[in-house]
Amino acid sequence: MAGSAWRSMLTQVVGGAIRRPALSSFSRGMQTVTLIPGDGIGPEISTAVMKIFEAAKAPIRWEERNVMAIKGPGGRWMIPPDAKESMDRSKIGLKGPLKTPIAAGHPSMNLLLRKTFDLYANVRPCVSIEGYKTPYTDVDLVTIRENTEGEYSGIEHVIVDGVVQSIKLITEEASRRIAEYAFEYARNNQRNSVTAIHKANIMRMSDGLFLRKCREVAENYKDIKFTEMYLDTVCLNMVQDPTQFDVLVMPNLYGDILSDLCAGLIGGLGVTPSGNIGANGVAIFESVHGTAPDIAGLDFANPTALLLSAVMMLRHMGLHDCGNKIQTACFDTIKDKKVLTKDLGGNSKCSEFTAEICRRIQDLD
Amino acid sequence: MTARSVRSLSGALKPLFSHRLLKVYGAATCQRHKSSYTPPPAQYGGRHTVTLIPGDGIGPELAKHVRELFRFCCVPVDFEIVTVDSTMESEDDIDNAIMAIRRNGVALKGNIETNHNLPPSYKSRNNLLRTSLDLYANVMHCQSLPGVRTRHRNIDIMIIRENTEGEYSSLEHENVPGVVECLKIITRPKSLRIADYAFRTAREKGRRRVTAVHKANIMKLGDGLFLECCKEVASGYPEITFDSMIVDNTTMQLVSRPQQFDVMVMPNLYGNVVSNVCAGLVGGPGLVPGANYGVDYALFETGTRNTGKSIANRNIANPTAMLLASCLLLDHLKLHAYAQMIRRAILSTVTETRLHTADLGGKGSTSEVVQSIMNAVQSTGPYTLSI
């Protein structure tokens, strides 16, 4: 009785902490966000997002930083210290697409960011966009993917010539953490159920551990329905009827495949938002498409993915009204089909698309 | 000289001439017999014996329908039924099944359930079958059927999946409490073998393009080795285009534009994902048969390997997948006429009479569908038992 009251209060406090990271930044009403424009079309879509936020009068102050990898003391690759310091202060980041050069010697920038800020959860809400027609309608699900271990631990050995062993690492700590985040997310966003995805019939110990942790955490969230499903069953059912899924939580590889599958259902990476949640309240929201170097600087880019990720960021910070306003304007513009960028089927420029959204926001006020 | 003496003379000289004769006629015979595969011998009066493992869930009822249909069509196949009790911890049942399959060479099976809450010492029975019999290639042919309503049309994808290694090696350990390591093994011989199988099949069936599905940007050594082996084999088949695609991009492409794929080859786990996605795209688990081929043995089952626990014994399961798998079985035994007859009847039921079970949005029961198939066979086929 008293124990459960204490626990529920604790979860409320923790939930509140996840939602509003640094209270001090609110003091002046303006929240600082580290903006990483990225490469290729990154700068132009970041400018588009900043313009739209200005039109919506969002209380956001942008701090632009570059995250080109530099070699730190000791020879280890790291992100520039000013970028790290800005992120540590603001706790929230918005990132455009980053180029991974093939023979640069340093690891992928995304990987570096993930390691630096311990971004353990990758959240991808997939909602069908009304104006952008795909064979699938009424998709409304969220994939939450464990981002630090699993099959992507990068531990591989050549045992003898011609035999390679890759190690998939599943730990209790990481599984518990991602399960807790999934249930917290479901609760904070009024979702009804969480489904754990696994292949424990084959990988009994590893996925078994992941499942056990999910089940344990589910005990503390009795208001949310918890189910478990095999990966192949999910894939089979997802392409036949995606409406049956709500929040999905899974280890790294399955998450990678399924989140891209779900992105494909709603129209691809050009319209899918994504967020990475880290320890200590850090969160970096990003667009997951590539840098598109062939159209960089030509004003052809589609800022929807970065814009929707920015809306996700606003919701994460608790600025729901602002987020809803921007999202409605964006979806209305796409639904109207008059001003669309090339990849959405129109022939307007990025700046025209941005201006149209800004106009709608001002009309909504 | 009389004919008999010529014959005896040629018999005596055969060892001398056989080599040259083979060279002259060899090319011609090779054209006729595309592969050197011979089916298991039909002993016992020209009738084949096939191991039948009913499995769990909808397995037993579908196995019954297969036997019923074969009896009706007078197919010269006798089934040796081996039940595997998935609730028993001992492996005697599955060992018996494996021995029966070794004896007969061919098997038809339903899916055997694996309770994943049991400790790791209880291995998946299906996996044991595949690895013990070295059924290295899992082949699934997903085709859009005219009578089935799906979101995508004109899909024709052949999925060839490595069936014995990769993530399904079941090698796991917990060195430190709370930290579990699971090993994914990729070997050169097995990767070469599956790639070779894929290209050979593509050539035999006249397919133009083979796509390797991998994640070599992350698993550089493991999937990198797989990709390298595929490239090596591809160089020996210049008429077939070879390309590769990363698995997450593949699933995205499959749900937006599945018509671009032709033949796909991949390691075990990605095969699981891709085959289930493709089965979902063409109409669901009730429609697609699957085949597992090894060097000496072949095993046929439904493509997506579901037990269908929730619809068991309710007469609503879709028998199409299992019956098409039995047609693949007949093809494997070189009983092509029977296979074509039954396949034509099944497809006419699905596409023309549109008698669908619940999973395809219809109201038919399993027995109604099977009856309709038997009617179709009777109206077109030669000899059947009376209905």
UniProtKB/TrEMBL annotation, chain A:
<protein>
    <recommendedName>
        <fullName>Isocitrate dehydrogenase [NAD] subunit, mitochondrial</fullName>
    </recommendedName>
</protein>
<comment type="similarity">
    <text>Belongs to the isocitrate and isopropylmalate dehydrogenases family.</text>
</comment>
<dbReference type="GO" id="GO:0000287">
    <property type="term" value="F:magnesium ion binding"/>
</dbReference>
<comment type="subunit">
    <text>Heterooligomer of subunits alpha (IDH3A), beta (IDH3B), and gamma (IDH3G) in the apparent ratio of 2:1:1. The heterodimer containing one IDH3A and one IDH3B subunit and the heterodimer containing one IDH3A and one IDH3G subunit assemble into a heterotetramer (which contains two subunits of IDH3A, one of IDH3B and one of IDH3G) and further into the heterooctamer.</text>
</comment>
<keyword id="KW-0809">Transit peptide</keyword>
<dbReference type="GO" id="GO:0005739">
    <property type="term" value="C:mitochondrion"/>
</dbReference>
<keyword id="KW-0460">Magnesium</keyword>
<dbReference type="GO" id="GO:0006102">
    <property type="term" value="P:isocitrate metabolic process"/>
</dbReference>
<feature type="domain" description="Isopropylmalate dehydrogenase-like">
    <location>
        <begin position="32"/>
        <end position="357"/>
    </location>
</feature>
<dbReference type="InterPro" id="IPR004434">
    <property type="entry name" value="Isocitrate_DH_NAD"/>
</dbReference>
<dbReference type="GO" id="GO:0006099">
    <property type="term" value="P:tricarboxylic acid cycle"/>
</dbReference>
<comment type="function">
    <text>Catalytic subunit of the enzyme which catalyzes the decarboxylation of isocitrate (ICT) into alpha-ketoglutarate. The heterodimer composed of the alpha (IDH3A) and beta (IDH3B) subunits and the heterodimer composed of the alpha (IDH3A) and gamma (IDH3G) subunits, have considerable basal activity but the full activity of the heterotetramer (containing two subunits of IDH3A, one of IDH3B and one of IDH3G) requires the assembly and cooperative function of both heterodimers.</text>
</comment>
<dbReference type="Pfam" id="PF00180">
    <property type="entry name" value="Iso_dh"/>
</dbReference>
<keyword id="KW-0479">Metal-binding</keyword>
<keyword id="KW-0496">Mitochondrion</keyword>
<keyword id="KW-0560">Oxidoreductase</keyword>
<dbReference type="InterPro" id="IPR024084">
    <property type="entry name" value="IsoPropMal-DH-like_dom"/>
</dbReference>
<keyword id="KW-0816">Tricarboxylic acid cycle</keyword>
<dbReference type="GO" id="GO:0004449">
    <property type="term" value="F:isocitrate dehydrogenase (NAD+) activity"/>
</dbReference>
<dbReference type="InterPro" id="IPR019818">
    <property type="entry name" value="IsoCit/isopropylmalate_DH_CS"/>
</dbReference>
<dbReference type="GO" id="GO:0051287">
    <property type="term" value="F:NAD binding"/>
</dbReference>
<keyword id="KW-0520">NAD</keyword>
TrEMBL record, chain B:
<dbReference type="Pfam" id="PF00180">
    <property type="entry name" value="Iso_dh"/>
</dbReference>
<keyword id="KW-0809">Transit peptide</keyword>
<dbReference type="GO" id="GO:0005739">
    <property type="term" value="C:mitochondrion"/>
</dbReference>
<keyword id="KW-0479">Metal-binding</keyword>
<protein>
    <recommendedName>
        <fullName>Isocitrate dehydrogenase [NAD] subunit, mitochondrial</fullName>
    </recommendedName>
</protein>
<dbReference type="InterPro" id="IPR004434">
    <property type="entry name" value="Isocitrate_DH_NAD"/>
</dbReference>
<comment type="similarity">
    <text>Belongs to the isocitrate and isopropylmalate dehydrogenases family.</text>
</comment>
<comment type="subunit">
    <text>Heterooligomer of subunits alpha (IDH3A), beta (IDH3B), and gamma (IDH3G) in the apparent ratio of 2:1:1. The heterodimer containing one IDH3A and one IDH3B subunit and the heterodimer containing one IDH3A and one IDH3G subunit assemble into a heterotetramer (which contains two subunits of IDH3A, one of IDH3B and one of IDH3G) and further into the heterooctamer.</text>
</comment>
<dbReference type="InterPro" id="IPR024084">
    <property type="entry name" value="IsoPropMal-DH-like_dom"/>
</dbReference>
<keyword id="KW-0496">Mitochondrion</keyword>
<keyword id="KW-0464">Manganese</keyword>
<dbReference type="GO" id="GO:0006102">
    <property type="term" value="P:isocitrate metabolic process"/>
</dbReference>
<feature type="domain" description="Isopropylmalate dehydrogenase-like">
    <location>
        <begin position="49"/>
        <end position="373"/>
    </location>
</feature>
<keyword id="KW-0547">Nucleotide-binding</keyword>
<keyword id="KW-0067">ATP-binding</keyword>
<dbReference type="InterPro" id="IPR019818">
    <property type="entry name" value="IsoCit/isopropylmalate_DH_CS"/>
</dbReference>
<dbReference type="GO" id="GO:0006099">
    <property type="term" value="P:tricarboxylic acid cycle"/>
</dbReference>
<dbReference type="GO" id="GO:0000287">
    <property type="term" value="F:magnesium ion binding"/>
</dbReference>
<keyword id="KW-0816">Tricarboxylic acid cycle</keyword>
<keyword id="KW-0460">Magnesium</keyword>
<dbReference type="GO" id="GO:0005524">
    <property type="term" value="F:ATP binding"/>
</dbReference>
<dbReference type="GO" id="GO:0016616">
    <property type="term" value="F:oxidoreductase activity, acting on the CH-OH group of donors, NAD or NADP as acceptor"/>
</dbReference>
